[in-house]
Design goal:
Distance between the termini: 26 Å
Radius of gyration: 15 Å
Order of helices and strands: HEHEHEHEHE
Largest sheet: 5 strands, parallel
Number of strands: 5
Number of helices: 5
Structural class: alpha/beta
Length: 143
């Protein structure tokens, strides 16, 4: 089900002092999506743009646990000019550092991560490593 643009427009207006970044996720569970689910994500991104969001937050992995570059590139194109955050899919990826590098190369603004742990405080050492590996090419946000 696509986002309701009018609902998000009202929410964005109510939160106008803080930039709104909308989570784009068609369902719970893993981060490997079907073509239909990618279509829903495209629609939800368009809706977030229409509603005045400052950014969107999403992540797509391959069945092997790598960043799905083709699908992420497509969603990034739809999201332009919004900021794009690659979310905690990185925390369940096969190689978080490789995902970080791929996300930076594709043009994501930031990565939301718990450092591959349930709580970010428990993943502090991995988050520190991610910040070092990012080399100011992409922001790392603990969460």
């Amino acid at each position: 089900m696509a986002l309701d643009a009018n609902l998000w427009r009202r929410k964005a207006a109510a939160l106008s002092r803080a930039p709104l970044h909308v989570m784009i996720r068609p369902r719970g569970g893993d981060f490997v999506y079907t073509e239909d689910e990618i279509g829903i994500m495209r629609e939800d991104i368009e809706c977030a743009k229409e509603a005045g969001a400052a950014g969107v937050v999403f992540g797509v992995l391959t069945p092997e646990g790598d960043l799905d570059e083709e699908r992420c590139r497509e969603l990034l194109r739809v999201a332009r000019p919004l900021e794009c955050t690659f979310h905690r899919a990185i925390d369940v990826s096969r190689d978080p550092i490789q995902v970080l590098r791929a996300a930076a190369r594709l043009g994501f603004t930031r990565i939301l991560s718990s450092g591959c742990k349930r709580k970010a405080i428990d993943g502090a050492s991995r988050l520190r490593e991610m910040v070092q590996q990012a080399e100011n090419r992409i922001q790392i946000m603990a969460g």
